[in-house]
Records
---
Amino acid sequence: MDEMKTDVLEYVKDEYVDDEDEEVTFDTPLISSGLVDSFSMVSLKTFIEKKYSLKLSDEEATPQAFDTVNSIVELVRKHTG
Amino acid sequence: MAYSDAVRAEFAGEIEGIREKGLYKEKRFIWSSQGAEIDVEFPEGAGHAKALNFCANNYLGLSSHPDVIAAAHETLDDRGYGMSSVRFICGTQDIHRELQDRVSEFLGMEATLLFPSCMDANAGVFEAVLGADDVIIADRLIHASLVDGIRLCSAQYDTFKHMDMKHLRKKLELHSDKRRTLVVTDGVFSMDGDLAPIDEMCDLCDEYGAMLLVDDSHASGFIGPKGRGTHEHFGVMDRVDIITTTFGKALGGASGGCVSGRRELVELCRQKARPYLFSNSLAPVIVGATIRVIELLSSSTERRDKLEKNTAYFREQITAAGLNIREGETPIVPVMLYNAKLANDMARDMYAEGIYVIGFFFPVVPAGQARIRVQLSAAHEKEHIDKCVEAFRKVGEKYGILGLDKKGIVDKYGL
Ligand SMILES: Cc1ncc(COP(=O)(O)O)c(C=O)c1O
């Protein structure tokens, strides 16, 4: 199991999903589906920056880049190498 | 030519895109003054039709109240039409000061500063009082104007789940290393009509040394026993640090807004808030009429009492008719339909029945939570409410949703 992916998914569920039954996977659209709005996205960005000790610019932390757990992890990997 | 055919076509394409997504806002024209019964031209160019208005923010029915209109006339004659100046140059009359003092007294706050609108108050207040070492922690469903204001400010920000106090505590804990913390919420949320638990928020703010800002635009004038707002409702009148509110809804409905709160914070807004410094002064006629509104509301609770009665009656009748509403006690009553097309279709059919209401769907409300939002007013009489409920019953029957809960409606129409 990919630990980074599971950690990010865990955070997303905890932070944004109220309905226990709602299924969220690595490629569930978060922003484009309305599950996470662009205003609330900030907590996710802060979490990522803290957890992986990096700084994401506004150009990188776009709603597109943050749309799925997979794409977020891809972005993080670009930084952590 | 800079605005070439190609450029024009690009912009036209963008508008078409809005239309294709079903998000295009149609034009609607009202030929009468604002009130319970209005004269509507819709669609554009169609003949006028009389309709009962259940979608105005005219909660107290003061938009066309004779005393308010008389005060406007008097002020117009006395103080002229416009100020042609921002407040701090030569745009402040004695009546601007008087209105600020009256608002402070009415809301029970230390000081007040007028803005051209509450949108402007919200756009200016954060930048004026906070800096990069500070953090704003906001409810996820706050009004768009607060979101914009927060984004204009250099402070860091974070959000908590809608009205979830456990989550707010978690965020206060997480940000306890910041210099100053400001918690932000709407008093009454405009789409759901629910009341933020301001009392619990005050306790949490005390515990973590945070300040609290409440946008009471949908509460000032009618929530609380004397209509002072959500802080009165929850018995915490001296514990909220900043209230922003509008004169464009219950308080006469013309326009204008304010920041009301701790003396130093209001003074900082006067010195630094950009919409205050760089936008024209509120017109004297609005100032004079709003003073009269505050006088009316301070001398009698009759109008907010009638609104409360109307609200309770509507909520009871609409539920008995078999429609599914979001529970609550405010005059904002969402009739839940979940499916966007259903909300739109039913609102159109309601209009054909002479009831003016609007369907709301994503992105105005979260996806899968489409609704028709009904707003009660003290201007409504029992017959108006009965007619509205009867129209909902008739239209609801047509779509086969009476007596259905969320699951029933979603099974039938999807999300
Ligand atoms: C919660 C809230 N705040 C602020 C505003 C903006 O008020 P104004 O019309 O005075 O700009 C609105 C109006 O839609 C609102 O609902």
---
Amino acid sequence: MHEMSIALAVVDQIGDAARSGGHEAVETVVLRVGELAGVVPDALRFCFELACEDTVLAGAVLLTEPVPGRAHCAPCAREWATGLPPHLCCPACEGPAAGLLSGRELEIAEVRWAPGRRAAAHEEA
Amino acid sequence: MCRATDLRTAVLAKNDRSAHRLRAELAARATVLVNLLSSPGSGKTALLEAELALARRRGIPVAALTADLATENDATRLARAGVPVKQVLTDGLCHLESDMLRDHLDGWLPAGTRLLFVENVGNLVCPASYDLGESLRVVLASVTEGEDKPLKYPTAFGLAQLVVVTKQDIAAAVEFDQEAFLTNVRQVNPGVEVVHTSARRGEGVGRLLDRALAVSHGAAVHQPVMATALDGHGHRDGRGHGDGHGHDHGHDHDHDHDHGDEDSHGDGHPLTHEHAH
């Protein structure tokens, strides 16, 4: 199950961004996960929670934005939803697709930072 | 106040950068890395043993690194071929990553190695997402695994540059439907070459070696559809997705997206902008 390695990579990158941006806590992480990225969002959520423990991301919520797979045929100038398992030959001419317009994304789209403990204490006072 | 940062960064960017680096370092040593992926029990060790022995007979400098969760059995088997072999134990990790591989090669990979075969952990899911720095990615499936294997594991088969069918000698006994298998491979990876082998009978042994040698001589490798990212106009946009298959920067449109390419986030932290909600 490589979702744990992926969760750790997410936590690692966001931890670095938090340090360089001076952030103390994370509210939400938005990941874009392509239909063909080979990642199971439920497994990733489970691993994410574990990977966040004792880091600046502790308690952060993971949101996943699914990205459908879309392929393109150059001679027919058409595109189609690949589905899963993907159909990577053109439904019209049956030739190979030129490539994917989308579907293999595995990206950190956005991080919403939460007020840190010090800031929260300040607001309460 | 809640602030947000658009990171827009590939989760596996670090591994991708490491793989690009390793590929370049190996190219400088004239070594081609072949990444072999399959399920456990597909017969990849038996085939690899035969290919390594053939390479040795032909005087081609090859080496092999084999990764398993536990035991050194595979290295013991491969070493019978008489070429340098290294066993890597992943201690339970289901795949190799490029940095791990680099550490294992450091100080071991013999000078002058032309082909380095890496037998990845037996698993068709996890290793598929990690570019190791290979120049040829091979997926193996035995005839006993069923014709629908390519559809069940589309990432692995979809990113393969060569598909090897093993245990062909028992195809009839297990009623392997070759046409169905080939149709399924074509659905997820049109144009990829499929070779049929039986290590036991020696059938097709040498094909893998020949393909790897061709790559080391600069032959073009298959570019899978799944590894070819297009922009909104249907042009290749050179986005790297960590699959190690030729990142084509062949056109000069400006892009507003920002992933994968080493140049665009050399520091690994592309904080493109911050905004307040």
